[in-house]
Every structure is written in structure tokens, then in C-alpha cells.
Specification:
The protein is an alpha/beta fold. The protein folds into 2 domains: 203 residues, Spore Coat Polysaccharide Biosynthesis Protein SpsA, Chain A; 35 residues, no CATH class. Helix content is 27%, strand content 24%. It contains 7 helices and 12 strands. Strands 5-6-4-1-7-11-8-12 form an 8-stranded mixed beta sheet, with helices on both faces. A two-stranded antiparallel ribbon has the order 2-3. A hairpin with a 2-residue loop joins strand 9 and strand 10. The longest helix has 17 residues.
Length: 243
């Protein structure tokens, strides 16, 4: 069973400038994701896909990135390869699924793991448990890490209609139900996505048989805004002090 880690790291970012280069726990987000994959110890290949010269320099690639053409696969060592992503695939509205389909068509693997740098807290036990899950469960189209929405339950959400607010899920007799009796609802936490070569060859991304991998709240910071980054940096500093 060949496992491949794909780390997407485009240079542009609207919410946080140069987000993938921001430091959390003494490491840039791109280096943290790379080191987590290395520490997992079972990936046959790690591929970083980026359009950014700064990100390439951050992982000590040097001038090889500058000299390469777009869509080049630059071999750094036996473990790490850099994909120089075209600018058309690195826009704010570019779909990550398009990149995954493109790269999966010529990369060699049984399982492709999408590891996003903006979810910085992963643990070796996560990788170990997911490896076992991916190799031993049958019939799934993808595996996705999830977290409980907790207080952000859709029963408590509203949308704007003209000048008034309306319940997102329609009128309810009582929208102040205690959290404890609300149905469990989950959201993707951005840390892990796993796909198979067979499904990706059929252009199936998440598919209709998504296998969940639940993670604890301590692991579930996904950086989209400056506030998210500050929270991640706070927890990252705490973890360094614990060590």
C-alpha cells in the first residue's frame, strides 16, 4: 500500500497575507505540515504544490524552483518533491479538487492524503489511526476529519432576508433549546482528507460514502483569519512550553 502526502501551499492569501509562511509554535505552517508528514514515517512520497518562490525558499529548495517551468516536478530528495503550480491553479477561487485530480493522474500511490498547512495541529496517533482506517475499511469514497460544531449549531443560525433575519433551517417553535439536546452536527476541520487512486481516476473527490474521523477540540484550529492565527499561535506557544 503506497501512501502519498500532498501539501497544497499557494502564495496568495486573502484572509491572512503570506499565511503559509506564518509561524506557529516556532515553525512556519508549511514546515510544520512537512515535518508532520515526515514524522508519520510511512509516506512513500511527500509532494508540496506551490506557486510561491518564498515558500520554496522556506523549505530550502533554492534556485531550482526559480529555474523550473510551471507544472514541473522538482525532486528535492528521495522523500520530497515540489510541484511548481501554474498561476491559473493558484487563484483565490481555484478549486483544490482540480489540483488533486491533475496531480493524481500521474503520481504513483494507493492512498493520497491532502494535508493543508492551515490546520497546524496534527498528532502522530492521528496519522497512525488513519493509516489503519484507510487500509482496513472497505467501500469508502473519501475519509475526512471532522469536529463538532458545538455552539455554532445550525439550529441557532440565521440568514438575512431583506431587512429581517430568518432562521437558517426555517421557523422553529423554540430556537433556544439547550445545547445538550440538539442533534450532533459536524464540520470538516481541514486537517485530513484521504482519497484512493481508483476514485480519483473516476473524478470522485469526496463522493457519497465519506468515512468520518473525529478529532478532539484541542486539535481543531483551522486558520482562515487573523484571529484564527492568533489563537493558533497562543496554543502553539503553550505546547512548546509543555515540551
Amino acid at each position: 500500500m503506497k501512501h502519498l502526502a500532498l501539501i497544497p501551499a499557494r502564495g496568495g492569501s486573502t484572509g491572512v497575507k503570506d499565511k503559509n509562511l506564518k509561524q506557529v509554535g516556532g515553525e512556519s505552517l508549511i514546515c510544520k505540515a512537512l515535518n508532520q508528514c515526515k514524522s508519520a514515517g510511512f509516506f512513500d512520497q511527500i509532494v508540496i504544490s506551490t506557486d510561491s518562490e518564498l515558500i520554496a525558499k522556506e523549505i530550502s529548495l533554492g534556485n531550482a524552483f526559480v529555474d523550473a517551468k510551471y507544472e514541473s516536478m522538482i525532486r528535492v530528495n528521495t522523500e520530497l518533491t515540489i510541484h511548481k503550480r501554474s498561476s491559473s491553479d493558484a487563484q483565490a477561487l481555484s478549486l483544490i479538487s482540480d489540483l488533486v485530480f491533475k496531480l493524481s493522474s500521474f503520481l504513483d500511490f494507493d492512498f493520497l492524503w491532502l494535508i493543508q498547512p492551515t490546520s497546524p495541529f496534527r498528532y502522530k496517533e492521528d496519522f497512525t489511526n488513519l493509516k489503519f482506517l484507510s487500509e482496513n475499511e472497505l467501500g469508502w469514497t473519501s475519509i475526512v476529519s471532522l469536529k463538532d460544531v458545538a455552539e455554532n449549531h445550525p439550529d441557532r443560525m440565521y440568514q438575512i432576508s431583506e431587512r429581517y433575519v430568518l432562521p437558517l433551517l426555517g421557523y422553529q417553535f423554540n430556537d433556544n433549546s439547550p445545547r445538550q439536546i440538539l442533534s450532533k452536527v459536524f464540520i470538516k476541520d481541514g486537517a485530513f482528507y484521504i482519497f484512493t487512486k481508483d476514485n480519483l481516476s473516476k473524478k470522485i473527490f469526496l463522493g457519497d460514502k465519506i468515512l468520518p474521523f473525529f478529532r478532539e477540540a484541542r486539535s481543531n484550529i483551522n486558520i482562515d483569519t487573523e484571529d484564527d492565527l492568533l489563537i493558533a499561535q497562543f496554543f502553539g506557544d503553550l505546547k512548546r512550553k509543555e515540551v
